[in-house]
Design goal:
With 191 residues, this protein is α+β, with helices and mostly antiparallel strands. The protein is 24% helix and 32% strand. It has a single domain (9-175), classed as Nucleoside Triphosphate Pyrophosphohydrolase (Alpha-Beta Complex), CATH 3.90.79.10. It contains four helices and nine strands; from the N terminus they run ββββββαβββααα. Residues 187-191 have low confidence and may be disordered.
Length: 191
Amino acid sequence: MPAPESSALIDRVDSADRPVGKVRRGEVFEKRAGFRVVHVFVFDWEGQLLLQQLGRHRDRNPLKWGSSVAGYLNAGEDYLEAAQRRLREELRLETPLAKFGSAVMPDQEARKFITLYLTRADQSAVRVAEPGHIESVRFEPVPAIRRQIEQWPKNFTETFHFLFRFYLSTLRLTGAKEWEDLDGPVPDWNA
C-alpha cells in the first residue's frame, strides 16, 4: 500500500497524540490538525546514515535531503506498522526496527507527532522502489552530514534538521552504550 494520497483519511490527534477523528492528509495544514508521521534512519554496518533526496515533483521539499524513510500513518495504523510498511515501499527492505524515540514539532501551524526508528542494512540491499517519490539515496558518515547541514542547511528538510538534532542530542544525554548493547546502529558522531 503506497503512502496516503492527499485525499486519504489519516488520524487527527490531540496534543497527547491520541486519535480524536479523521482528516484528509491534504488538509492537515489548512485545519492545523495534529497528525502522525514515522521516520526511519537506515545505517550501514560502518555506521553511515542513508539519506534520501525527495523527488523533484514532490509538493513539499522537492530535491531536499531527508530521512532514509518517512511517511504519514494511514488511519488506524500504528507507528511500527507504518515504519515497516514505508521501509518496504520506499527501499524494499524488511529489516528489524528499533524504536529510538518520539518527538513533536510544529509544521505550518499544525502539530506533527514523529516516531523515529533505527535499522541496519547492507548498502547493496537498498533498492529505490518509488522513483517518482525518491530522486536518489546515498550513505554518508554522520560527521559529514553534520558538516553539510552547517554549510548548506537549505539542502535538508526542516524535519530532518529536527530529527538529526534529536538523534544526536539523545545519544549525548543517554549515552550510546545502551544502543551498542542492543546491537543498535550508533555511529561515532564525535569524529
